[in-house]
Structure formats: structure tokens, C-alpha cells
Amino acid sequence: MIAIVLFGKPGAGKGTQAEFLKEKYNLTHISTGDIFRFNIKNETELGKKAQEFINKGELVPDEITINMLKAEVEKNMDKAGFLFDGFPRTIPQADALDAFLKSINLEITATVGLEANDDILVARILERGKTSGRADDQDEAKIRTRYEEYNEKTSPLIEYYKQQNKYYAVDGIGTIAEITERLSNVIDKL
Q1: Residues in binding site for ATP
Q2: Is 48 annotated as catalytic?
Q3: Strand 81-85 to strand 2-8: parallel, antiparallel, or no bridges (unpaired)?
Q4: Known binding site for AMP: residues?
Q5: Average pLDDT of every residue of the chain
């Protein structure tokens, strides 16, 4: 069983690529955004707790996020592995994910980073914003603020996984098919 973390700034194509990779490799795509929305919509105990923090404008604590991920992993143990998208975002989250996976005799197999120039990604998101309906996809200043947060909090994870020889950079510019092929070349060698 494999466990892959898919990294990349907003607009890098993580969601698009995750759809292809989950089908090709029989992986469960675990998106923290999707998990939050599911738990909140279905008013699960964890969803209610998460909503309390969201209502206050606060980040959902790692413990709640990890517990949502655990539940998702445990109900999908019949797949060939997992593709984590949007988690971990910080070193403490990576440590918590590692501890959880170790408890079920798994570990992160690889971390794949979709790398692209910020200006190209901003243009992608602004284009996506024309149809996504997301206000944060329509404001260049907000997009660049998301990149600053990524650089501050998430970029250190690249070094974290490089030290474990588990980080693979992939050029995130090109057609969807070209990028899928680059990702597949990395995954096929794991």
C-alpha cells in the first residue's frame, strides 16, 4: 500500500491531477477540504467541532483534522493506497500524519510537488475564478496572500521530506496530459 502527499500552491493543478492519479493507481484521494465539507454538511461530531472554529474565523486544530483523516483512511483500507491533498501543511501536521500511519503499519511513500511560477499560477486562478464562484479566486491580492502563507507554513515541508529522501519535484506547467505523465513517471518508480 502506498501513501503519497501531493503538494503545490493554489492553482498548481493538485485537484485535477488527483482525479487522474486516483483512477490510474486505485488510490483513495483524501482532500482535507472535501473531508471538512462532508463532515460539516453531515453534522458529524467532528464536523460540529470544526464548524465552531470556522464560525469564529479560526483555523481548525490539527487534532480535529487528523481525526477526520484517520476516519477517512480507516474506511478505505481496501484500496492500493492514499493520495493526500491539502494535508499536511505544517511540520506538526506531518509528524501527526506520520505517527498515525505508523500506527497502522504505513508510511508516506513519497511527496510530489507540482512546481510552477507564481505569475502563471495567479493567471490560472484568476481564469478559474471566472467560473468557480470562489471570491478568493477572483482577487489577485488574496491569491498572493495565499502564496505567502504557503511559502511561510508549507514550504518547510519540502525540506522535511527531502531529508527523508521522499520529495520529488514535478514541473507543473504544460498540458494536463503532460503533467499527468510526469507524475506517473515518478509514481511508477516508487
Answers
A1: 11-16, 128, 174
A2: no
A3: parallel
A4: 32, 37, 58-60, 86-89, 93, 134, 146
A5: 91
* 52 contact partners, CB below 8 Å, separation of at least 6: none
| Strand runs labelled E in 107-160 | 110-115
> Which amino acid is located at 34 in the chain?
D
Q: What is the mean pLDDT of residues 145-171?
A: 91
Which is catalytic among the residues 70, 146, 162, 166?
146
CATH number for the domain that contains residue 22: 3.40.50.300
Q: Of these residues, 14, 22, 49, 182, which one is catalytic? A: 14
Q: What is the mean pLDDT of residues 108-122?
A: 93
pLDDT of residue 167: 97
Q: pTM for the whole thing?
A: 0.87
Query: For residue 90, what are the domain limits?
Result: 2-29+81-184
Q: Please tell me the distance from the alpha carbon of residue 26 to that of residue 36, in angstroms, as a whole number.
A: 23
- Compute the radius of gyration of the chain from its Cα atoms: 16
Catalytic residue (choose from 24, 48, 102, 134): 134
Q: Is 144 a catalytic residue?
A: no
